[in-house]
Backbone:
């Protein structure tokens, strides 16, 4: 049984909730899935202060004492994650953005490998596909296996025709998401992802030291010696490409002063 958790970044339980409920019920009908809808307005998510304690010292040193860790635990114990956003001013809602800001340290120290991610964006008129693309990139940065998100369009009140279009969009989306859930948790890496990993880890190894949580995290995970975030087989071309990035980054970055 796979557990899927949807994080909804809006208090409006109309078009957005209809889309995610249809998605999850369609997903469950495909078999072996249980789900939970987490409404972010029901949790305390405070504004990031930009102090960078989570980056330098570790997320446990964050001065904010909100529900961030409760939400992260839900992500950690899930096999699949769905971010659900409403198009506000051509971007995800402020509450969803605040949640993403509270996850800033994870982009530095990704950890959701082996889990499947997607997103659903609801809108009234236009601009949603750009938000979908942005949230797809967010999912990749957090470490997930990303299934391309979808955008649903409807006005309020929603017509029968609009509901039918939503049903069709989320039915196909849920099928793709279920297929990814059923595949191997740790797929072969793409060349771009490999380059990103090698550039990040080599930069950290050269620039940082024991005073940085990023450095100690990478060391604890064994990533300074690894080919990738998780065990993968690299062909000759990818091995050479990875080594090239290691060499370039080691020559182009410099040690940073301790602060």
Residues:
């Amino acid at each position: 049984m796979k557990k899927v958790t949807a994080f909804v970044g809006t208090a409006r339980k109309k078009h957005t909730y209809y889309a995610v409920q249809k998605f999850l019920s369609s997903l469950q009908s495909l078999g072996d899935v249980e789900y939970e809808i987490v409404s972010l307005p029901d949790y305390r998510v405070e504004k990031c202060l930009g102090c960078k304690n989570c980056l330098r010292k570790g997320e446990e040193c964050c001065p904010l004492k909100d529900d961030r860790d409760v939400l992260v635990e839900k992500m950690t114990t899930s096999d699949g994650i769905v971010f659900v956003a409403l198009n506000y001013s051509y971007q995800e809602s402020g509450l969803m953005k605040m949640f993403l800001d509270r996850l800033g340290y994870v982009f530095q120290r990704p950890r959701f490998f082996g889990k499947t991610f997607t997103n659903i964006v609801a809108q009234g008129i236009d601009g949603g596909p750009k938000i979908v693309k942005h949230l797809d990139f967010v999912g990749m940065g957090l470490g997930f296996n990303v299934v391309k998100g979808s955008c649903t369009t409807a006005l309020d009140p929603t017509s029968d025709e609009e509901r039918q279009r939503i049903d069709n969009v989320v039915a196909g989306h849920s099928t793709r998401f279920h297929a990814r859930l059923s595949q191997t948790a740790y797929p072969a890496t793409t060349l771009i992802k490999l380059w990103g990993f090698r550039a990040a880890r080599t930069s950290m190894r050269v620039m940082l030291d024991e005073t940085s949580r990023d450095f100690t995290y990478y060391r604890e995970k064994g990533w300074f010696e690894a080919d990738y975030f998780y065990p993968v087989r690299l062909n000759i071309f990818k091995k050479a490409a990875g080594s090239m990035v290691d060499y370039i980054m080691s020559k182009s970055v410099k040690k940073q002063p301790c602060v």
